[in-house]
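Late entry, evening session. Most of the bench is empty. Finally got around to the prediction I had been postponing all week. Sequence below, unchanged from the version circulated by S.P.
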Amino acid sequence: MKPPTLHDVAREAGVSHMTVSRVVRGSRAVRLATAQQVRDVIARLGYRPDPALSALAAYRQRGGGAARGSTLVFIDCDGTAFTRDVWAGAREEAALDGYACEQVPLPPSPAAQRRLGRVLFHRGVRGLLFGPSEHPQEFTGWAWPEFAAVSLGALTHRPALHAVAMDYFHGAFSGCERLFANGCRRLGLVVDPHLESRTGGTWLGGYAAAVLPRHAPLICPDGARGDPSRLQAWLRRHRIDGVLTIHPEIAKVLRTRGLAAAFLNSGGAALHSFPYYALQPAEIGRHGVRLLHPAVLRREFGLPAAPQRVSLRGTWIDPAEDSG
Protein backbone atom coordinates (compact mmCIF):
# COMPACT_ATOMS: atom_id res chain seq x y z
CA MET A 1 0.00 0.00 0.00
CA LYS A 2 1.26 3.43 -0.95
CA PRO A 3 2.11 5.53 2.14
CA PRO A 4 -0.11 8.61 2.66
CA THR A 5 1.20 11.89 1.30
CA LEU A 6 0.93 15.48 2.46
CA HIS A 7 -1.76 16.04 -0.17
CA ASP A 8 -3.74 13.06 1.20
CA VAL A 9 -3.70 14.70 4.62
CA ALA A 10 -4.75 18.05 3.17
CA ARG A 11 -7.66 16.50 1.27
CA GLU A 12 -8.86 14.53 4.30
CA ALA A 13 -8.59 17.55 6.62
CA GLY A 14 -10.18 19.93 4.15
CA VAL A 15 -7.26 22.36 4.15
CA SER A 16 -4.51 23.36 1.73
CA HIS A 17 -1.29 21.45 1.46
CA MET A 18 0.52 24.59 2.65
CA THR A 19 -1.50 24.49 5.88
CA VAL A 20 -0.48 20.88 6.46
CA SER A 21 3.13 21.80 5.77
CA ARG A 22 2.99 24.62 8.32
CA VAL A 23 1.51 22.28 10.96
CA VAL A 24 4.22 19.69 10.34
CA ARG A 25 6.90 22.38 10.75
CA GLY A 26 5.32 23.61 13.98
CA SER A 27 4.43 27.02 12.57
CA ARG A 28 2.30 29.28 14.78
CA ALA A 29 0.61 30.77 11.73
CA VAL A 30 -2.15 28.14 11.85
CA ARG A 31 -5.18 28.49 14.14
CA LEU A 32 -5.06 26.07 17.07
CA ALA A 33 -8.29 24.29 16.12
CA THR A 34 -7.15 23.81 12.53
CA ALA A 35 -3.72 22.61 13.62
CA GLN A 36 -5.29 20.04 15.94
CA GLN A 37 -7.61 18.89 13.16
CA VAL A 38 -4.62 18.38 10.86
CA ARG A 39 -2.67 16.51 13.57
CA ASP A 40 -5.64 14.19 14.13
CA VAL A 41 -5.73 13.34 10.43
CA ILE A 42 -1.95 12.80 10.39
CA ALA A 43 -2.29 10.35 13.28
CA ARG A 44 -5.22 8.55 11.68
CA LEU A 45 -3.58 8.16 8.28
CA GLY A 46 -0.14 7.40 9.68
CA TYR A 47 1.50 10.14 7.61
CA ARG A 48 5.26 10.54 8.09
CA PRO A 49 7.02 13.56 6.60
CA ASP A 50 10.12 12.97 4.48
CA PRO A 51 12.89 14.85 6.34
CA ALA A 52 14.81 15.55 3.15
CA LEU A 53 11.76 17.12 1.49
CA SER A 54 10.96 19.05 4.67
CA ALA A 55 14.53 20.29 4.70
CA LEU A 56 14.31 21.40 1.08
CA ALA A 57 11.05 23.25 1.73
CA ALA A 58 12.49 25.06 4.72
CA TYR A 59 15.64 25.86 2.74
CA ARG A 60 13.62 27.46 -0.04
CA GLN A 61 11.41 29.34 2.39
CA ARG A 62 14.16 30.76 4.59
CA GLY A 63 16.93 31.01 2.04
CA GLY A 64 20.67 30.50 2.39
CA GLY A 65 22.63 27.77 4.11
CA ALA A 66 23.32 24.24 3.14
CA ALA A 67 20.34 21.97 2.72
CA ARG A 68 19.87 19.38 5.44
CA GLY A 69 20.10 15.72 4.58
CA SER A 70 18.12 12.73 5.72
CA THR A 71 20.85 11.27 7.93
CA LEU A 72 21.34 11.61 11.68
CA VAL A 73 24.66 10.65 13.22
CA PHE A 74 24.99 8.84 16.55
CA ILE A 75 28.32 9.63 18.22
CA ASP A 76 29.40 6.55 20.22
CA CYS A 77 31.29 7.80 23.28
CA ASP A 78 32.10 4.52 25.04
CA GLY A 79 31.36 1.44 22.89
CA THR A 80 29.39 -0.37 25.63
CA ALA A 81 26.46 -2.78 25.27
CA PHE A 82 24.23 -0.19 26.96
CA THR A 83 25.16 2.34 24.28
CA ARG A 84 24.41 -0.19 21.53
CA ASP A 85 20.91 -0.61 22.96
CA VAL A 86 20.45 3.18 23.01
CA TRP A 87 21.60 3.40 19.39
CA ALA A 88 19.19 0.60 18.38
CA GLY A 89 16.29 2.67 19.73
CA ALA A 90 17.55 5.77 17.94
CA ARG A 91 17.79 3.87 14.63
CA GLU A 92 14.25 2.55 14.94
CA GLU A 93 12.76 5.96 15.75
CA ALA A 94 14.83 7.71 13.06
CA ALA A 95 13.54 5.25 10.45
CA LEU A 96 9.95 6.16 11.35
CA ASP A 97 10.79 9.78 10.54
CA GLY A 98 12.52 8.87 7.29
CA TYR A 99 16.11 9.19 8.50
CA ALA A 100 19.08 6.89 8.35
CA CYS A 101 21.02 6.88 11.62
CA GLU A 102 24.74 6.20 11.32
CA GLN A 103 27.01 5.36 14.24
CA VAL A 104 30.54 6.77 14.44
CA PRO A 105 32.97 6.69 17.38
CA LEU A 106 33.74 9.93 19.20
CA PRO A 107 37.08 11.25 17.88
CA PRO A 108 39.71 11.37 20.64
CA SER A 109 40.74 15.02 20.29
CA PRO A 110 39.10 18.39 19.60
CA ALA A 111 40.99 18.62 16.31
CA ALA A 112 39.70 15.21 15.19
CA GLN A 113 36.18 16.18 16.26
CA ARG A 114 36.49 19.34 14.21
CA ARG A 115 37.52 17.34 11.13
CA LEU A 116 34.62 14.92 11.58
CA GLY A 117 32.22 17.86 11.98
CA ARG A 118 33.38 19.35 8.67
CA VAL A 119 32.90 16.02 6.90
CA LEU A 120 29.40 15.60 8.31
CA PHE A 121 28.45 19.18 7.46
CA HIS A 122 29.50 18.79 3.82
CA ARG A 123 27.54 15.55 3.66
CA GLY A 124 24.43 17.52 4.67
CA VAL A 125 24.18 16.04 8.18
CA ARG A 126 22.59 18.50 10.60
CA GLY A 127 21.45 16.29 13.49
CA LEU A 128 23.85 14.77 16.07
CA LEU A 129 23.09 12.34 18.91
CA PHE A 130 25.86 12.03 21.49
CA GLY A 131 25.64 8.60 23.11
CA PRO A 132 26.08 7.70 26.78
CA SER A 133 29.51 8.06 28.31
CA GLU A 134 31.41 6.70 31.30
CA HIS A 135 32.55 10.20 32.30
CA PRO A 136 31.65 13.84 31.49
CA GLN A 137 32.88 14.91 28.05
CA GLU A 138 34.26 18.16 26.68
CA PHE A 139 32.73 18.55 23.21
CA THR A 140 35.00 21.43 22.22
CA GLY A 141 35.76 20.57 18.60
CA TRP A 142 32.33 21.01 17.03
CA ALA A 143 31.07 23.94 14.97
CA TRP A 144 27.84 24.20 16.93
CA PRO A 145 26.13 26.83 14.71
CA GLU A 146 25.98 24.16 11.99
CA PHE A 147 24.22 21.42 13.98
CA ALA A 148 21.30 20.54 16.22
CA ALA A 149 22.41 18.09 18.92
CA VAL A 150 21.03 15.99 21.78
CA SER A 151 23.00 14.26 24.54
CA LEU A 152 21.86 10.78 25.59
CA GLY A 153 22.67 9.69 29.13
CA ALA A 154 22.68 10.90 32.71
CA LEU A 155 25.99 12.76 32.73
CA THR A 156 26.15 16.50 32.02
CA HIS A 157 28.70 17.40 29.36
CA ARG A 158 30.22 20.68 28.25
CA PRO A 159 28.80 22.56 26.54
CA ALA A 160 25.33 21.74 27.84
CA LEU A 161 22.98 20.25 25.24
CA HIS A 162 19.37 19.11 25.22
CA ALA A 163 19.49 15.72 26.95
CA VAL A 164 17.55 12.50 27.50
CA ALA A 165 18.29 10.08 30.35
CA MET A 166 16.72 7.51 32.62
CA ASP A 167 15.38 8.87 35.90
CA TYR A 168 17.79 6.96 38.11
CA PHE A 169 16.95 9.15 41.11
CA HIS A 170 13.32 8.04 40.95
CA GLY A 171 14.36 4.40 40.66
CA ALA A 172 16.48 4.55 43.81
CA PHE A 173 14.02 6.66 45.80
CA SER A 174 10.98 4.56 44.87
CA GLY A 175 12.95 1.34 45.54
CA CYS A 176 13.64 2.49 49.07
CA GLU A 177 10.02 3.46 49.54
CA ARG A 178 8.95 -0.05 48.45
CA LEU A 179 11.32 -1.65 50.96
CA PHE A 180 10.19 0.62 53.80
CA ALA A 181 6.54 -0.11 52.91
CA ASN A 182 7.32 -3.85 53.21
CA GLY A 183 8.56 -3.41 56.77
CA CYS A 184 12.29 -2.79 56.35
CA ARG A 185 13.88 -0.38 58.82
CA ARG A 186 17.53 -0.09 57.78
CA LEU A 187 18.48 -0.04 54.10
CA GLY A 188 21.94 -0.48 52.62
CA LEU A 189 23.18 0.54 49.16
CA VAL A 190 25.36 -2.03 47.35
CA VAL A 191 26.43 -0.56 44.01
CA ASP A 192 29.77 -0.50 42.15
CA PRO A 193 30.96 3.15 42.48
CA HIS A 194 32.12 3.19 38.85
CA LEU A 195 28.67 2.22 37.61
CA GLU A 196 26.99 4.61 40.04
CA SER A 197 29.09 7.45 38.65
CA ARG A 198 27.55 6.85 35.21
CA THR A 199 24.20 7.94 36.65
CA GLY A 200 25.71 11.27 37.66
CA GLY A 201 25.35 10.35 41.32
CA THR A 202 21.57 10.04 41.07
CA TRP A 203 21.31 6.46 42.40
CA LEU A 204 23.13 7.63 45.51
CA GLY A 205 21.06 10.82 45.62
CA GLY A 206 17.75 8.97 45.42
CA TYR A 207 18.84 6.48 48.07
CA ALA A 208 20.06 9.20 50.45
CA ALA A 209 16.90 11.28 49.99
CA ALA A 210 14.76 8.29 50.93
CA VAL A 211 16.72 7.02 53.95
CA LEU A 212 17.93 10.23 55.61
CA PRO A 213 14.61 10.90 57.39
CA ARG A 214 15.02 7.46 59.04
CA HIS A 215 18.74 6.73 59.38
CA ALA A 216 22.18 7.68 58.08
CA PRO A 217 23.12 6.28 54.64
CA LEU A 218 24.71 2.83 54.78
CA ILE A 219 26.91 2.37 51.72
CA CYS A 220 28.73 -0.91 51.16
CA PRO A 221 32.55 -0.60 50.97
CA ASP A 222 33.73 -1.44 47.46
CA GLY A 223 35.89 -4.38 48.59
CA ALA A 224 33.07 -6.03 50.50
CA ARG A 225 30.74 -6.29 47.53
CA GLY A 226 32.70 -9.12 45.89
CA ASP A 227 33.57 -10.96 49.10
CA PRO A 228 30.58 -12.87 50.58
CA SER A 229 32.06 -13.11 54.07
CA ARG A 230 32.92 -9.41 54.22
CA LEU A 231 29.53 -8.51 52.76
CA GLN A 232 27.72 -10.60 55.39
CA ALA A 233 29.81 -9.04 58.14
CA TRP A 234 28.94 -5.53 56.90
CA LEU A 235 25.22 -6.36 56.71
CA ARG A 236 25.28 -7.86 60.21
CA ARG A 237 27.29 -5.03 61.77
CA HIS A 238 24.89 -2.34 60.51
CA ARG A 239 21.74 -4.44 61.18
CA ILE A 240 20.63 -3.99 57.58
CA ASP A 241 17.34 -5.67 56.68
CA GLY A 242 16.86 -4.34 53.14
CA VAL A 243 19.29 -3.79 50.25
CA LEU A 244 19.19 -1.60 47.17
CA THR A 245 21.55 -2.97 44.51
CA ILE A 246 22.24 -3.76 40.85
CA HIS A 247 24.39 -6.87 41.40
CA PRO A 248 22.72 -10.30 40.95
CA GLU A 249 25.87 -12.03 42.26
CA ILE A 250 25.01 -10.99 45.83
CA ALA A 251 21.52 -12.55 45.67
CA LYS A 252 22.73 -15.74 47.42
CA VAL A 253 24.03 -13.74 50.38
CA LEU A 254 20.77 -11.81 50.59
CA ARG A 255 18.73 -15.02 50.64
CA THR A 256 21.03 -16.64 53.20
CA ARG A 257 20.37 -13.76 55.58
CA GLY A 258 16.68 -13.56 54.68
CA LEU A 259 16.95 -9.94 53.53
CA ALA A 260 14.60 -8.01 51.31
CA ALA A 261 16.07 -6.35 48.22
CA ALA A 262 15.19 -4.12 45.29
CA PHE A 263 17.30 -4.18 42.13
CA LEU A 264 17.79 -0.91 40.28
CA ASN A 265 17.98 -2.53 36.85
CA SER A 266 16.83 -5.70 35.15
CA GLY A 267 20.32 -7.23 34.77
CA GLY A 268 20.19 -10.84 35.99
CA ALA A 269 16.49 -10.55 36.85
CA ALA A 270 15.85 -14.08 35.63
CA LEU A 271 18.38 -15.35 38.17
CA HIS A 272 17.69 -13.46 41.37
CA SER A 273 13.83 -13.28 41.43
CA PHE A 274 13.82 -10.07 43.49
CA PRO A 275 11.75 -6.99 42.50
CA TYR A 276 13.58 -4.89 39.91
CA TYR A 277 13.27 -1.51 38.19
CA ALA A 278 12.83 -2.26 34.49
CA LEU A 279 14.68 0.28 32.33
CA GLN A 280 14.61 0.36 28.54
CA PRO A 281 17.84 1.87 27.17
CA ALA A 282 16.37 1.90 23.67
CA GLU A 283 13.79 4.43 24.89
CA ILE A 284 16.62 6.90 25.51
CA GLY A 285 17.53 6.72 21.84
CA ARG A 286 13.93 6.96 20.70
CA HIS A 287 13.22 10.04 22.80
CA GLY A 288 16.50 11.57 21.68
CA VAL A 289 15.36 11.41 18.07
CA ARG A 290 11.95 12.81 19.04
CA LEU A 291 13.75 15.78 20.58
CA LEU A 292 16.20 16.20 17.71
CA HIS A 293 13.87 15.80 14.71
CA PRO A 294 11.86 19.04 15.20
CA ALA A 295 15.06 21.01 15.79
CA VAL A 296 16.52 19.78 12.49
CA LEU A 297 13.36 20.58 10.57
CA ARG A 298 13.12 24.07 12.05
CA ARG A 299 16.84 24.77 11.58
CA GLU A 300 17.31 25.33 15.29
CA PHE A 301 21.07 24.93 15.09
CA GLY A 302 23.59 25.98 17.69
CA LEU A 303 23.79 25.57 21.45
CA PRO A 304 20.44 25.92 23.27
CA ALA A 305 19.99 28.98 25.46
CA ALA A 306 17.97 26.88 27.93
CA PRO A 307 18.83 23.17 27.53
CA GLN A 308 15.91 20.78 28.00
CA ARG A 309 16.30 17.53 29.94
CA VAL A 310 13.88 14.63 29.44
CA SER A 311 13.87 12.07 32.28
CA LEU A 312 12.40 8.64 31.53
CA ARG A 313 11.04 6.53 34.38
CA GLY A 314 11.18 2.77 34.54
CA THR A 315 8.61 0.34 35.95
CA TRP A 316 8.87 -1.82 39.07
CA ILE A 317 8.36 -5.51 38.35
CA ASP A 318 8.02 -8.10 41.12
CA PRO A 319 8.48 -11.67 39.81
CA ALA A 320 6.80 -13.05 42.94
CA GLU A 321 3.64 -11.04 42.23
CA ASP A 322 3.68 -11.99 38.54
CA SER A 323 4.02 -15.69 39.35
CA GLY A 324 1.23 -15.43 41.92
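Two things to note before I forget:
The chain has three domains: 6-47, 71-166+282-313, 168-278.
Confidence is low (pLDDT under 50) at residues 62-68.
Will write this up properly tomorrow.
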